Amino acid sequence: MSSTAATAKILLVTGDAAESLEVLYPYQRLREEGYDVHIAAPSRKTLRFVVHDFEEGYDTYTEKPGYSFPADLAFSDVDAGQYAALVIPGGRAPEYLRNDPELRKICKAFFDADKPVAQICHGPLLTAAVGALTGRRVTAYPALELDMQAAGATFQDAEVVVDGTLVSSRAWPDHPVWMREFLAVLRTKAPVA
Question: Which residues does the UniProt record annotate as the domain DJ-1/PfpI (predicted)?
Protein backbone atom coordinates (compact mmCIF):
# COMPACT_ATOMS: atom_id res chain seq x y z
CA MET A 1 0.00 0.00 0.00
CA SER A 2 1.37 3.42 -0.88
CA SER A 3 1.85 6.07 1.77
CA THR A 4 -0.56 8.32 -0.15
CA ALA A 5 -3.37 5.80 0.32
CA ALA A 6 -2.59 5.48 4.02
CA THR A 7 -2.78 9.24 4.57
CA ALA A 8 -6.38 9.27 3.35
CA LYS A 9 -7.66 6.83 6.02
CA ILE A 10 -9.22 8.02 9.26
CA LEU A 11 -10.27 5.82 12.16
CA LEU A 12 -13.38 6.66 14.16
CA VAL A 13 -13.67 4.67 17.42
CA THR A 14 -17.00 4.25 19.16
CA GLY A 15 -19.55 1.84 20.60
CA ASP A 16 -23.12 1.46 21.74
CA ALA A 17 -24.65 4.56 23.37
CA ALA A 18 -22.42 6.95 21.44
CA GLU A 19 -24.08 10.24 20.57
CA SER A 20 -25.57 9.82 17.06
CA LEU A 21 -24.60 13.27 15.79
CA GLU A 22 -21.07 13.02 17.18
CA VAL A 23 -20.49 9.85 15.17
CA LEU A 24 -22.36 10.57 11.97
CA TYR A 25 -21.46 14.24 11.48
CA PRO A 26 -17.67 13.75 11.43
CA TYR A 27 -18.08 10.46 9.54
CA GLN A 28 -20.00 12.14 6.73
CA ARG A 29 -18.06 15.43 6.79
CA LEU A 30 -14.69 13.70 6.50
CA ARG A 31 -15.95 11.44 3.71
CA GLU A 32 -17.21 14.55 1.92
CA GLU A 33 -13.63 15.88 2.04
CA GLY A 34 -12.36 12.68 0.40
CA TYR A 35 -11.13 10.74 3.44
CA ASP A 36 -11.75 7.01 3.81
CA VAL A 37 -13.34 6.73 7.27
CA HIS A 38 -13.55 3.40 9.10
CA ILE A 39 -15.64 2.88 12.23
CA ALA A 40 -14.12 0.56 14.83
CA ALA A 41 -15.95 -0.79 17.89
CA PRO A 42 -15.46 -3.53 20.48
CA SER A 43 -16.77 -5.98 17.87
CA ARG A 44 -17.89 -5.80 14.26
CA LYS A 45 -21.64 -5.44 14.68
CA THR A 46 -24.51 -3.01 14.31
CA LEU A 47 -24.05 -0.27 16.89
CA ARG A 48 -26.94 1.44 18.60
CA PHE A 49 -26.42 5.15 19.13
CA VAL A 50 -28.34 7.64 21.27
CA VAL A 51 -29.49 11.23 20.96
CA HIS A 52 -28.50 13.64 23.71
CA ASP A 53 -30.56 16.79 23.77
CA PHE A 54 -30.69 19.90 25.91
CA GLU A 55 -34.18 20.57 27.24
CA GLU A 56 -35.40 23.43 29.37
CA GLY A 57 -35.90 22.46 32.99
CA TYR A 58 -33.30 19.65 33.00
CA ASP A 59 -30.06 20.04 34.91
CA THR A 60 -28.25 17.88 32.37
CA TYR A 61 -28.89 16.50 28.89
CA THR A 62 -31.62 13.97 28.14
CA GLU A 63 -31.05 10.71 26.26
CA LYS A 64 -33.26 9.08 23.65
CA PRO A 65 -32.72 6.17 21.24
CA GLY A 66 -30.77 7.21 18.14
CA TYR A 67 -29.59 5.65 14.90
CA SER A 68 -28.12 2.21 14.32
CA PHE A 69 -24.97 1.96 12.23
CA PRO A 70 -22.53 -0.83 11.35
CA ALA A 71 -19.00 -0.98 12.69
CA ASP A 72 -16.49 -1.74 9.93
CA LEU A 73 -14.07 -3.58 12.20
CA ALA A 74 -13.34 -4.62 15.77
CA PHE A 75 -10.69 -2.86 17.85
CA SER A 76 -8.63 -6.07 17.78
CA ASP A 77 -8.49 -5.85 13.96
CA VAL A 78 -7.17 -2.26 13.85
CA ASP A 79 -3.63 -1.53 12.67
CA ALA A 80 -3.19 2.05 13.89
CA GLY A 81 -0.25 2.50 11.54
CA GLN A 82 -2.63 2.33 8.57
CA TYR A 83 -4.53 5.43 9.68
CA ALA A 84 -3.57 9.08 9.45
CA ALA A 85 -5.94 10.40 12.11
CA LEU A 86 -8.32 9.40 14.89
CA VAL A 87 -11.82 10.66 15.77
CA ILE A 88 -13.32 10.00 19.21
CA PRO A 89 -17.03 10.86 19.51
CA GLY A 90 -18.81 11.30 22.82
CA GLY A 91 -21.99 10.00 24.35
CA ARG A 92 -21.82 7.34 27.04
CA ALA A 93 -19.62 5.03 24.94
CA PRO A 94 -16.23 6.49 26.02
CA GLU A 95 -17.04 5.81 29.68
CA TYR A 96 -16.93 2.04 29.15
CA LEU A 97 -14.65 1.99 26.08
CA ARG A 98 -11.77 3.46 28.10
CA ASN A 99 -11.57 0.08 29.86
CA ASP A 100 -10.86 -1.78 26.59
CA PRO A 101 -7.13 -2.64 26.43
CA GLU A 102 -7.15 -2.92 22.60
CA LEU A 103 -8.64 0.54 22.25
CA ARG A 104 -6.19 2.02 24.74
CA LYS A 105 -3.31 0.64 22.63
CA ILE A 106 -4.85 2.19 19.51
CA CYS A 107 -5.25 5.62 21.11
CA LYS A 108 -1.77 5.57 22.57
CA ALA A 109 -0.32 4.75 19.13
CA PHE A 110 -1.91 7.88 17.62
CA PHE A 111 -0.54 10.12 20.37
CA ASP A 112 2.90 8.46 20.30
CA ALA A 113 3.08 9.19 16.56
CA ASP A 114 1.69 12.75 16.99
CA LYS A 115 -1.10 12.03 14.50
CA PRO A 116 -4.20 14.25 14.41
CA VAL A 117 -6.87 13.38 16.98
CA ALA A 118 -10.34 14.92 17.17
CA GLN A 119 -12.29 14.37 20.38
CA ILE A 120 -15.64 15.72 21.48
CA CYS A 121 -17.93 15.71 24.51
CA HIS A 122 -17.12 12.63 26.65
CA GLY A 123 -14.49 11.38 24.15
CA PRO A 124 -11.65 12.86 26.24
CA LEU A 125 -12.37 10.24 28.92
CA LEU A 126 -10.65 7.83 26.55
CA THR A 127 -7.59 9.99 25.88
CA ALA A 128 -7.32 10.71 29.61
CA ALA A 129 -7.25 6.94 30.25
CA VAL A 130 -4.07 6.59 28.15
CA GLY A 131 -2.33 9.53 29.82
CA ALA A 132 -2.42 11.61 26.64
CA LEU A 133 -3.79 14.81 28.18
CA THR A 134 -1.02 15.66 30.64
CA GLY A 135 0.16 19.19 29.93
CA ARG A 136 -2.37 19.67 27.11
CA ARG A 137 -5.11 22.26 26.65
CA VAL A 138 -8.53 20.70 26.01
CA THR A 139 -12.23 21.22 26.12
CA ALA A 140 -14.90 18.60 26.70
CA TYR A 141 -18.46 18.41 27.90
CA PRO A 142 -18.35 21.02 30.71
CA ALA A 143 -19.26 18.46 33.39
CA LEU A 144 -15.88 16.80 32.69
CA GLU A 145 -13.83 19.83 33.75
CA LEU A 146 -12.63 18.10 36.95
CA ASP A 147 -11.87 14.88 35.04
CA MET A 148 -9.74 16.82 32.56
CA GLN A 149 -7.88 18.58 35.37
CA ALA A 150 -7.32 15.23 37.13
CA ALA A 151 -5.85 13.94 33.85
CA GLY A 152 -3.31 16.78 33.92
CA ALA A 153 -4.97 18.94 31.27
CA THR A 154 -5.84 22.61 31.31
CA PHE A 155 -9.59 22.77 30.70
CA GLN A 156 -11.08 25.59 28.62
CA ASP A 157 -14.85 25.99 28.23
CA ALA A 158 -14.77 26.90 24.53
CA GLU A 159 -16.32 25.70 21.27
CA VAL A 160 -13.00 24.27 20.21
CA VAL A 161 -9.48 24.00 21.59
CA VAL A 162 -6.56 23.17 19.32
CA ASP A 163 -3.38 21.96 21.00
CA GLY A 164 -0.95 20.86 18.31
CA THR A 165 -2.60 17.92 16.55
CA LEU A 166 -5.30 17.49 19.23
CA VAL A 167 -8.62 19.17 18.45
CA SER A 168 -11.34 19.02 21.09
CA SER A 169 -14.89 20.33 21.38
CA ARG A 170 -17.64 20.37 24.01
CA ALA A 171 -20.62 18.73 22.28
CA TRP A 172 -22.53 18.45 19.01
CA PRO A 173 -23.68 22.11 18.92
CA ASP A 174 -19.97 22.93 18.32
CA HIS A 175 -19.64 20.67 15.25
CA PRO A 176 -19.03 23.35 12.60
CA VAL A 177 -16.04 24.92 14.36
CA TRP A 178 -14.76 21.50 15.57
CA MET A 179 -14.63 20.01 12.08
CA ARG A 180 -13.33 23.26 10.53
CA GLU A 181 -10.35 23.24 12.91
CA PHE A 182 -9.77 19.49 12.59
CA LEU A 183 -9.78 19.75 8.79
CA ALA A 184 -7.22 22.57 9.02
CA VAL A 185 -4.94 20.19 10.97
CA LEU A 186 -5.63 17.34 8.52
CA ARG A 187 -4.85 19.50 5.48
CA THR A 188 -1.39 20.07 6.94
CA LYS A 189 -0.65 16.67 8.51
CA ALA A 190 -2.72 14.26 6.37
CA PRO A 191 -3.94 15.89 3.15
CA VAL A 192 -6.21 14.05 0.76
CA ALA A 193 -4.21 12.86 -2.24
Answer: 9-183
